[in-house]
Write a structure and sequence with these properties.
CATH architecture: 3-Layer(aba) Sandwich
Radius of gyration: 17 Å
Distance between the termini: 41 Å
Bound molecules: S-adenosylmethionine
CATH superfamily: Vaccinia Virus protein VP39
CATH topology: Rossmann fold
Strand order of the largest sheet: 3-2-1-4-5-11-10
CATH class: Alpha Beta
Number of domains: 1
Number of strands: 11
Oligomer: single chain
Length: about 240
C-alpha cells in the first residue's frame, strides 16, 4: 500500500490551511500566467486539488496521475460529484506517458519522492518526454536552499519538518502537518541539494531551469503573520521548459 493511501483524506484537508491559498496557490498561478486552452499533465496530482484549479482557470484537457489508489479515488469521487472534465490515471509518474504531448506539466510536491539521484532523473525525464517542444514544467519541492537541520517549526502555519543532520542527497525529511481541525499526520520526503535538482533537470534536457521564491497574495502583504514563512519558506517553486528543437 502506498503511504498516501493511509493519509489521503488528511492530506486533502490540509489544502484548507491558509498558506495553501495565499502563498502556494498564489505562487503557482503567478508563475503560470494564462493557462487558457493549454493541455496539462498534473503528475502526482493527489486528490486533484490543482488539477481542478487548472481546469477552472480555463486549461484544455487536464489529466492527473498519481501512484496512490486512494488519492485517485478521492479525485474521481470529486469529479463525479462536481464534474469539470478532469481525467485521472492511477499510474506511476516515473513511467507514465500521455497519448499526446502536453503544453504544461505540473509536479506539485512530487520530485522529492524520488529516493536517489537516479530516480530524480527518471521523474524529470518522464516529465520532459510528456511535454511538446517549448512546453513548460513547473512545481514545488521541499526547501533545501537554506542549511536547515533537525526540527524546523512552521507550527503556526501547520507544518513542522525534521531535516537530516547532513545535507546528503537521499536523506529523509519528515513532514508533520496539523490541519485546521487539529488532526495531525506525517509523511517523508527525500533531501536533494538545489544543485542536484538543477543537474537532474539539465541532464533530462530541460532548458532555463530556475528556482522561484514563494510569494504572498497582495491582500496579505501587510500582515506580519507571514514574515517567518517568507523568511524561511518550507518549499520552493521551480520552472523549466522543453527546448523547441
Ligand atoms: C504531497 S502530495 C501532493 C499532491 C498534489 N500534487 C498537491 O500538490 O496537492 C504527493 C503526491 O505524489 C504522489 N506520488 C508519490 N510518488 C509518486 C509516483 N512515483 N508517481 C505518481 N504519484 C506519486 C503521492 O501519492 C501523493 O499523492
Amino acid at each position: 500500500m502506498d503511504r498516501y493511501d493511509t493519509i489521503a483524506e488528511a492530506y486533502r484537508d490540509s489544502k484548507e490551511l491558509t498558506f495553501r491559498d495565499v502563498i502556494e496557490t498564489y505562487t503557482l498561478f503567478e508563475m503560470l500566467g494564462d493557462v487558457g486552452g493549454k493541455t496539462v499533465l498534473d503528475m502526482g496530482c493527489g486528490d486533484g486539488f490543482y488539477t481542478r484549479l487548472l481546469k477552472r482557470a480555463g486549461a484544455g484537457e487536464v489529466t492527473g496521475v498519481d501512484i496512490s489508489g486512494e488519492m485517485i479515488r478521492l479525485a474521481t469521487e470529486e469529479e463525479s460529484r462536481r464534474p469539470l472534465g478532469c481525467l485521472y490515471r492511477h499510474r506511476d509518474a516515473r513511467t507514465f506517458q500521455p497519448c499526446a504531448r502536453v503544453d504544461l506539466v505540473l509536479a506539485s510536491f512530487l520530485l522529492h519522492y524520488a529516493k536517489s539521484d537516479e530516480e530524480l532523473r527518471r521523474f524529470c525525464r518522464a516529465c520532459l518526454d510528456a511535454l511538446r517542444p517549448g512546453g513548460r514544467f513547473v512545481g514545488f519541492v521541499a526547501n533545501t536552499h537554506i542549511p536547515l537541520k533537525g526540527t524546523v517549526s512552521w507550527k503556526k502555519y501547520g507544518i513542522v519538518k525534521v531535516y537530516p543532520q547532513t545535507r546528503r542527497d537521499g536523506g529523509v525529511i519528515t513532514v508533520r502537518i496539523t490541519n485546521d481541525d487539529s488532526r495531525e499526520f506525517e509523511f517523508e520526503n527525500c533531501f536533494f541539494a538545489p544543485l542536484t535538482y538543477r543537474k537532474a533537470f539539465d541532464e533530462a534536457g530541460f532548458a532555463d531551469f530556475r528556482w522561484v521564491e514563494p510569494e504572498l497574495h497582495p491582500n496579505e502583504r501587510n500582515n506580519p503573520f507571514w514574515d517567518d514563512f517568507l523568511r524561511i519558506p518550507p518549499f520552493m517553486a521551480f520552472s523549466a521548459s522543453r527546448g523547441r528543437s
